[in-house]
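Chain A, query sequence.
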Amino acid sequence: MLLRRYTKAVSLHSEIKRFICGFRHKSFAVAISEALDKLQEQKMERQAQKEAEDESVKEANRLKRTLKRKKWVDWHAQDAEDAANGIKRAPFDPADRIKRKKSAILLSYCGANYYGMQRNPGMQTIEEELFKAMLKHNWITEDSFKQVQIASFQRAARTDKGVSAARQVCSIKLPDELDLVAFNKDLPETIRLFGVERVTKGFNAKEQCNARTYTYTLPSIAFAGCNEQQNQQDQATFRLTPALHEQICETLKLYEGTKNFHNFTSKKNFLDPSAKRFIMSFTSSAPFHSPQGIEFVTLQVKGQSFMLHQIRKMVGLAIAIVRGNTTRITLERALTEERLDLPMAPGLGLVLDTVHYERYNDRYGKDGIHKPLTWSVQEQQVTQFIELHIYSNIYRTEAEQCNMLDWLSTLHFHSYDTRRGDEEKKSNEDGEEDDGEE
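Chain A, predicted structure.
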């Protein structure tokens, strides 16, 4: 109160002083009068402005209440008015009120020609193709197509541009009666929906998933010594020795356990709690040959969750270590607070293999109402699709385009040492999609 009185007194004094200086030829009484009139005029202007603002807020609130208020329609009066105007109300279509229940769907796709799994306006994505087919078959409504959250849609994991999925799982509300054969006819041949299972009301494909398994399939020549000459002809003739394969397995095993993977992603620092991830296993298959005669191996990593580019950087560094571009000391340093320059393997060989629901299956899979999400009935179909559309694309592309060989030629450009400030800043500004789901 005293402060406001003091402020008004200072304001009045300033006005009086200004008017006295401006009107020295006038009497003191006239100057005082004009100063008081000026103050009164300013007060009225401020009051008018405040009233206008208050009225604007009240009008906005009235509009909000009007929009929120339900308007009940008197159909008898409405029909009479429409009949007078020659308009007849369309009969009720029972299909518009289909009861939909929470379901889990099993999806497989080759991501070679798509900009990832997640829907993105103007981009060709897996979800866009999926939702278009669902709308056509009346699995979802128009409103759900425009905003899939209405249908409680959730994917178990996101996949980046070009990344495929062997057994992707999504949760969404769907009708009881579904024709999978007819539905798949309206999907591209590189996308297939293999199964639908009813789940609990609170099921969420991402939150209930307790682990993810990814595979990375690559030609074995990627592990040849960095000083050896490597070309397309060498790729066709190279073969892993048992000792070299053992070295690969030992290197991959170094990633297992709970570690800080801030160097294997972007926008993360060492102190960020989310940079810590638990890797349950990281193994390599025995060497095998593609139809083109090239020797391949498949690396398989299982973890609770993965970050942006984490798997591709783990594979990239493992290759560099086995080849001799760097040593295991680099991997040990990468798990500390240092910020290192690490290579990232191409996206072609990365596949989301399996999403795991062990905890959900233990709790609800044997209750007599819900089935466990193991998809054993669909496994044969899924395996055939994987070989026909996912792995065959990897084998063919490597044979024709030599993606891995081209990438191997860039490994010597990496320092495998502390990043310079500008490089780290650039990395932290990257905004691409995740290899995984978080």
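The first strand starts at residue 101 and ends at 109. Confidence is low (pLDDT under 50) at residues 69-73, 422-438.
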